[in-house]
């Protein structure tokens, strides 16, 4: 329960920092919270950090695109702060620490894991926004064909 609240705060603070409108701050925090719930549950279920990061980012992307239409705001307002709890900061820190300790095999392992998680987050957000754009274009094309 603590982690869920901290994920909410971890998304809310960047929202404040990026001057998100007050009416959208609650929704920004919920984006990070839902992404973290998905990440944590999938990590417990599968044990795969990269896959869990990907699914967490997909949930953040779906939530952001949906709420953006309801709140009449850009989806990036919700997705950028929403992925902050998913960012693999500890893996990057550990990789840097292992490099400083000259433990290159552990540094490579944690570095590759961190880069993979970052790529999975980017792909998750990219895929959901692409799907929403394709659906939106198809709806527009159907409207033009009816006219």
UniProtKB/TrEMBL annotation:
Record's keyword terms, sorted: Cell inner membrane, Cell membrane, Membrane, Transmembrane, Transmembrane helix
Subcellular localization(s) per the UniProt record: Cell membrane
Pfam families in the cross-refs: ThrE_2 (PF12821)
Source organism, top-level taxon: Bacteria
Main location: membrane
Segments passing through the bilayer: 25-43, 49-68, 75-93, 113-135
Membrane topology designation: Multi-pass membrane protein
Keyword RNA-binding belongs to the record: no
Biological processes per GO annotation: succinate transport
GO cellular component: plasma membrane
Keyword field contains Zinc: no
Positions of the Threonine/Serine exporter ThrE domain: 4-130
Family as reported in the entry's similarity comment: Belongs to the ThrE exporter (TC 2.A.79) family.
Name of the protein: Threonine/Serine exporter ThrE domain-containing protein
Organism: Acetivibrio clariflavus (strain DSM 19732 / NBRC 101661 / EBR45) (Clostridium clariflavum)
């Amino acid at each position: 329960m603590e982690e869920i609240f901290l994920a909410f705060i971890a998304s809310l603070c960047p929202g404040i920092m990026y001057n998100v409108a007050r009416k959208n701050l609650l929704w920004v925090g919920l984006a990070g919270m839902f992404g973290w719930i998905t990440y944590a549950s999938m990590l417990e279920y599968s044990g795969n950090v990269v896959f869990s990061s990907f699914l967490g980012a997909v949930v953040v992307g779906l939530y952001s695109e949906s709420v953006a239409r309801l709140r009449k705001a850009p989806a990036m307002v919700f997705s950028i702060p929403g992925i902050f709890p998913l960012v693999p900061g500890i893996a990057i820190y550990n990789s840097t620490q292992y490099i400083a300790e000259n433990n290159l095999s552990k540094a490579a392992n944690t570095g590759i894991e961190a880069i993979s998680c970052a790529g999975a987050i980017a792909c998750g957000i990219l895929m959901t926004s692409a799907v929403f754009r394709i659906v939106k274009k198809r709806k527009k094309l159907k409207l033009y064909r009816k006219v």
